[in-house]
Structure formats: structure tokens, C-alpha cells
Design a protein that fits this description.
11 strands, elongated, 3 domains, alpha+beta, OB fold (Dihydrolipoamide Acetyltransferase, E2P), 43% helix
């Protein structure tokens, strides 16, 4: 009877046997290694790596597609869009109102100042023509078209947060006097093209942020859907590093 009262334990891994690294990682519940950890030539290792690589690619594709749909809903169908996250509201071919699109406005946390071009100043497509000052650095806004500045929005100069609160209307930056040739040369995007392009940049930004967070003590924290935790993420990585990631993804 004494045997029934004894508590015996039996090892899961037999003596002298090697535990597969995929078992150690928690992917497989039980798998021994018979190749002395020569993973490079292991068919099981190849199969599992291909599986997880494919899953990652699918997730990334799904994330871009989801953001593309979100951007389509956010953008105005009556506007055209520059490839560097600006919008253009045309009045014929002679006048263009310019601002930044909502995705870029959202990640530019706590703008401190907006520097606008001067009236009658000539701006050129692809060159910086306005600047948004944040805690981490100054973001240059690239002109989507060639033209001459005909007016500037004093409201955003006085209240920089307007560009985040209302980027597609009250947060406009300036208007340009332009011409048909400049508009056609500008290669502006419609809503569908802009949504696709911007979604790729936003997904890259999320990936850069996640990689940065994984380096530090806060690696266990993740970004909420839609980036709702961006302010705390900026605090975690620091404003300068956060701004560098914004420039890398959106600049």
C-alpha cells in the first residue's frame, strides 16, 4: 500500500535526448531532435519557417488592405492627392488649395507651430514649401504642384492643432495660382490611388514603431487598432526617435 502514497515523477524528455527548438519555443508540444540541432538541413524546420513566413506576409497584406479601406473613407472624393500625403482641391486649372491628408495629420502629435510660405512665393513640386514643428523635429510639407502662393491660412499659424483636428477643411495650408500644364505634370492621385499609397506608408510606420518598441523595456505593449495609443508610444520611444520614424515612413 505504501507504493500508492508515493509521488513519482517521470521526465517528459528521456535522458540523452535533445529537445527540438520549436518545442522550446512553444510551437510544438512534443518533438525531439535527431539531427543534433542541424536546423539548416532539417525538413521540419524548413516547413515551419515557410509556414510562419507565409502567415506574416498574409497578415501584412491584410493590414494594408484594411488601412486602404479606412483611408478611402477618410479622404474626400472631390480632392486630388499628392504622393507625399498632401491633398489638392482644384478650382478649374488655375487655383489649388493645399493641405495634408488625415493619416499624416494624425501621426504629427502636438504640433507646436506651422510655418507657411509667403504670399507670391513660387513653390515647386516635390520641394519643401511649408513646415510643421513638433516636439521631435520639424516636418517639411512638399508641394504637390508648381505654382505661386496666392493665400495662406492664418488660422493654422495661430492654432497649429487645427491641422490635426480638421485636416481636410479648416486645417488647409495655402492656395496656389497654377496652370493646366503644372496640374497635368503633377501626377496627382485620385482617392483610390491615394488610399493604396498611403496605406502602405502607414503600415510601414506601424512596423517601424513595433520594431522600436521591441528593443526596449516596454516591448510587451502594443499599438491599439487605429493607432489610438500613439501619444503614449511617442512617450515610450522619445519624441526625437518617434519623429525620425515619422520622417522615414511619411517623408
Amino acid at each position: 500500500m505504501g507504493d500508492f502514497g508515493e509521488h513519482r515523477s517521470y521526465p517528459l524528455i528521456p535522458p540523452g535526448e535533445l529537445r527540438c527548438i520549436w518545442m522550446t519555443a512553444g510551437i510544438l508540444s512534443y518533438q525531439l531532435c535527431d539531427r543534433e540541432y542541424d536546423c539548416e538541413h532539417c525538413p521540419l524546420d524548413d516547413a515551419l519557417r515557410m509556414r510562419f513566413t507565409a502567415r506574416t506576409a498574409v497578415r501584412e497584406h491584410e493590414a494594408v488592405a484594411r488601412r486602404e479601406g479606412e483611408r478611402r473613407r477618410d479622404l474626400h472624393t472631390g480632392y486630388q492627392y499628392g504622393r507625399k500625403h498632401t491633398w489638392v482641391q482644384m478650382s478649374g486649372y488655375t487655383s489649388a488649395r493645399v493641405g495634408i491628408e488625415p493619416g499624416l495629420a494624425f501621426v504629427l502629435l502636438s504640433p507646436k507651430a506651422v510655418v507657411l510660405p509667403s504670399i507670391r512665393e513660387h513653390v515647386f513640386q516635390g520641394r519643401a514649401c511649408a513646415w510643421i514643428v513638433t516636439d521631435g523635429g520639424t516636418f517639411p510639407v512638399l508641394a504637390p504642384l508648381d505654382g505661386q502662393v496666392s493665400s495662406a491660412n492664418a488660422k493654422v499659424a495661430e492654432n497649429p492643432h487645427t491641422i490635426r483636428q480638421s485636416p481636410l477643411d479648416e486645417g488647409w495650408l495655402f492656395t496656389l495660382s497654377t496652370d493646366r500644364e503644372s496640374v497635368e505634370r503633377g501626377g496627382l492621385l485620385d482617392v483610390i490611388g491615394a488610399a493604396k499609397s498611403y496605406a502602405v506608408d502607414e503600415s510601414r510606420f506601424q512596423a517601424l514603431l513595433a520594431a522600436e518598441l521591441s528593443k526596449g523595456a516596454e516591448a510587451g505593449l502594443t499599438i491599439a487598432d487605429g493607432g489610438q495609443m500613439l501619444k503614449s508610444v511617442s512617450d515610450m520611444v522619445g519624441p526625437k526617435k518617434y519623429f525620425r520614424l515619422v520622417r522615414e515612413a511619411f517623408g
